[in-house]
Amino acid sequence: MNMIDLHSHILPALCDGSQDLETSLEMARLAVADGITHLAGTPHIHPGVYDNSTDNIAKTLRMLQVELYSQDIALRLVMGADVHMVFGVLERLQDGQIPTLHGSRYFLLEPSHYLPVPQFLRQIEAFLNAGYVPVITHPERLRWCEDNYQDFITAARMGAWLQVTAAAISGTFGRTAKRCAERLLLDGVVHIIASDAHNTGYRPPILSEGVAAAIRITGDDADVMRMVIDRPLAILDNIDPREVLLPPGLISAAPAVECLLC
């Protein structure tokens, strides 16, 4: 089973993920063994914490891809970033300092883990109006997800995409994250599943266990497989989201953004 993982911290020494080349290579081997053919290197971008940008991410990704080729590890790396949702993101996307996923209109957007983001839906609206598609990372693991659950449903109906963590579905991140992941899956609003891998131990680049758990939860193996094959591929090909088969809960036409936010 060939899969695409669009969220990982495999690039060495750029954030809290892999800290050295050997760890990155072992992560790549684990990914390939799990059936992953393409893996996005998406280090954190969080001003004052992880001051990464397009230039240094691209340089590190090229270096790691060369090492993968030299060691005959059949994994294709693609570029991106896990972008913390703070002031100035849109402007930095527009001037090229922040990379989108594989140069597409899609980019990973990470809200605060601990507190609701002020004007969350207004910010989502601004990205969409500027022609970008924010892929909201791991909403199920945010501490404010359950109390503000409807905001994520609204964001998805507006046109944002939701990315759930494979290990959260299978229970690695605890009962609260698993419960929220199950709720999002059953409500039919999850676009993609990714690993958000950081290392080779507790957070490896493994999708298969989460995929199997998602199929057990939803009973819809076809749509779950779209979360790790078809929709990630649509992102890499920069397909207009209106041309992509949406999750079941979003198949019907969504209300206009203005109505959702009024």
Written account of the structure:
- The protein is α/β, with parallel strands linked by helices.
- It has a single domain, classed as TIM Barrel, CATH 3.20.20.
- It contains 11 helices and 9 strands.
- The strands form 2 sheets. The protein has a 6-stranded parallel sheet, with helices on both faces. It has a 3-stranded parallel sheet with strand order 1-2-4, sandwiched between helices.
- Helix 5 links the parallel strand 7 and strand 8 (about 160-165).
Describe the structure in brief.
40% of the residues lie in helices and 14% in strands. The protein is built from 11 helices and 9 strands.
Short descriptors:
262 residues, alpha/beta, TIM Barrel, 6-stranded parallel beta sheet, 3-stranded parallel beta sheet, 11 helices, 9 strands, 14% strand, disordered C terminus, Caps_polysacc_synth_CpsB/CapC, hydrolase, EC 3.1.3.48, protein-tyrosine-phosphatase
SSE layout and pairings?
Elements lengths: L2 E3 L15 H13 L2 E6 L2 E2 L8 H17 L5 E4 L2 E3 L4 H6 L11 E5 L9 H10 L3 E5 L11 H10 L2 E5 H5 L4 H12 L5 E3 L13 H11 L2 H8 L1 H7 L20 H5 L1
Parallel strand pairs: 1-2, 2-4, 3-5, 5-6, 6-7, 7-8, 8-9
Helix pairs in contact: 4-5, 8-9, 9-10
Distance between the termini: 44 Å
| CATH fold description | TIM Barrel
Poorly predicted parts: 253-260
Assign the CATH class.
Alpha Beta
Strand order, largest beta sheet: 3-5-6-7-8-9
Q: Could you describe the largest sheet, including whether it forms a barrel?
A: 6 strands, parallel
Classify the beta-strand content into a percent band: 5-15%
Assigned CATH superfamily: Metal-dependent hydrolases
- What CATH architecture do you see? Alpha-Beta Barrel
Average pLDDT taken over every residue: 95
Structure summary, number of beta strands: 9
What is the helical fraction, as a range of percent? Answer: 25-40%
Give the count of helical stretches: 11
Radius of gyration: 17 Å
Number of domains: 1
The helix/strand class is alpha/beta
- Order of SSEs: EHEEHEEHEHEHEHHEHHHH
* Approximate shape: globular
Keywords: Hydrolase
Family: Belongs to the metallo-dependent hydrolases superfamily. CpsB/CapC family.
InterPro entries: Caps_polysacc_synth_CpsB/CapC, Pol/histidinol_Pase-like
Catalytic activity: O-phospho-L-tyrosyl-[protein] + H2O = L-tyrosyl-[protein] + phosphate
